[in-house]
Design a protein that fits this description.
This protein is of the alpha+beta class and about 450 residues long. The chain has 14 helices and 16 strands.
């Protein structure tokens, strides 16, 4: 039986605000003594009233804009009701039918072996804001709860089920991570749990006729089940969990059964997923508007002010580097991944007089030929040294050329028969003979004269 993977993503990102989402407790909880960053609000004590964090709302709007979303002029918070030990109130303040942002997209670009660029659009369903839960700590037979994390601002980015392979999922997560770091709204440190991924995975049975439809990019119906793998904190683990799930589900479908709709965890040591609980539907959470927080309205002036703070994003930076500085796409991607590195790259170029130094600087940075610990002025001086033609001992060069020609008659014959690239082998032989103490362009020019 043939199957098409159907994969959607839910990604949770803790915002690095100073205080929590609905109270004044410090949101800097990591590594602190358990239950020391709490108050009646984040502990859900009776009568405690939530007050929304303005900065968290503005940063969620900023992320929505970066993901090409429509910012909803009217938004509200809702109560998501479920009972779990890490949720002290018995409900989570989240968003349901009126999220802050919706209807966005993110393009994934890649190059095939022929260096042809392909592009795939991943649709963003929604970007909404909620509060994080407490953290369960399992020790022997006991389970302890640390509420320091409870109430920390948490943005959730939900995609449409547009992925059909784990590689694209990993690339999307890496790009999303880079955008979040560019916006400076979260450290997105997965080791600390401030970015957590939850893929929803299923397989769609298809006939040969449907395979032909799929190849024409026509939409197929979604499967009648899905499995969510919770709280993955590594891009590689997300890929491995999806690959394991696709194999596991295919075996179940091959046996004539349908996989159970459930929530599973991922054991990175064993490389397997495991059942946690049955998966709830939206109606199971009994959403209703949060009565203690009024609806939010965003005017054009406010949205324009936030949009003005949007920095140049990685994809745009890559395009600019290729067009303006003439560097390879792969190098542009590497340099643009980090705001500090990309700023350093541009600062170095501003110190160099030549307008064709882009690829030289990129090579030196990417291949670590020159240390980026140097100041941009010092780096630029090193580049200028590399760019200066080497002084060549012409007498030694003539001798080395004679030796290379005599030692490689077949290469010489290939060159003279029209295989002009063969000369590069001879250039290499001469450079080796001269121990690099020659200018490569001069070597090639003298070889061409000799081989006429």
């Amino acid at each position: 039986m043939n199957y098409v993977p159907v994969i959607g993503l839910e990604t949770h990102v803790e915002l690095k605000t100073e205080s929590k989402m609905f109270c004044s407790c410090s949101a800097n909880y990591f590594g602190k003594a358990p239950n020391t960053h709490t108050c009646p609000v984040c502990l859900g004590l009776p009568g405690a009233l939530p007050v929304p964090n303005k900065k968290a709302i503005e940063w969620t709007i900023l992320l929505g804009l970066a993901l090409n979303c429509t910012i909803n002029k009217e938004s509200k918070f809702d109560r998501k009701n479920y009972f779990y030990p890490d949720l002290p109130k018995g409900y989570q303040i989240s968003q349901y039918d009126k999220p802050i942002a919706s209807g966005g997209w993110l393009n994934l670009k890649s190059q095939n072996s022929n260096l042809k660029t392909t592009e795939k659009k991943i649709r963003i369903t929604r970007v909404h804001l909620e509060e994080d839960t407490g953290k369960l700590l399992h020790s022997n037979k006991d389970t302890l709860i640390d509420f320091n994390r409870s109430g920390v601002p948490l943005v959730e980015v939900v995609t449409e089920p547009d992925f059909d392979n784990s590689t694209d999922v990993k690339r999307f997560l890496e790009e999303l991570h880079t955008i979040i770091r560019y916006l400076d709204i979260s450290d997105a440190d997965m080791e600390k749990g401030s970015m957590r991924m939850e893929p929803n995975i299923s397989l769609r049975k298809i006939t040969n006729d449907e395979l032909r439809i799929t190849n024409k990019n026509q939409k197929l119906e979604l499967p009648n089940y899905k499995v969510e793998v919770k709280n993955i904190n590594s891009f590689n683990f997300a890929k491995k969990a999806i690959d394991y799930e696709l194999k596991r589900q295919a075996e179940i479908l091959d046996s004539g059964k349908i996989p159970v709709q459930e929530t599973r965890g991922y054991n990175d040591k064993k490389g397997i997923t495991y059942s946690q609980r049955s998966k709830e539907e939206a109606h199971d959470y009994r959403y209703f508007p949060e009565p203690d927080i009024p609806p939010m309205e965003f005017g054009n002036e406010k949205l324009e002010m936030i949009n003005d703070t949007l920095p140049e994003l990685p994809a745009a930076k890559v395009e600019r580097y290729i067009k303006k500085f003439g560097i390879k796409s792969s190098d542009a991607v590497i340099i643009s991944r980090d705001k500090i590195i990309s700023a350093y790259f541009e600062n170095v170029l501003s110190k160099i007089k030549s307008d064709k130094a882009g690829q030289t600087v990129a090579n030196a940075m990417v291949n670590k030929k020159i240390s980026t610990k140097l100041s941009s002025d010092e780096f630029a001086k090193e580049i200028e040294k590399l760019s200066k033609p080497k002084e060549t001992n012409m007498g030694m060069l003539a001798s080395s050329i004679e030796k290379a020609i005599e030692s490689n008659p077949k290469v010489v014959a290939d060159y003279k028969s029209g295989k002009t690239n063969a000369i590069m082998f001879l250039v290499g032989q001469v450079m080796r003979e001269m121990k690099g103490q020659a200018d490569a362009q001069t070597v090639r020019a003298e070889l061409e004269k000799k081989l006429k």
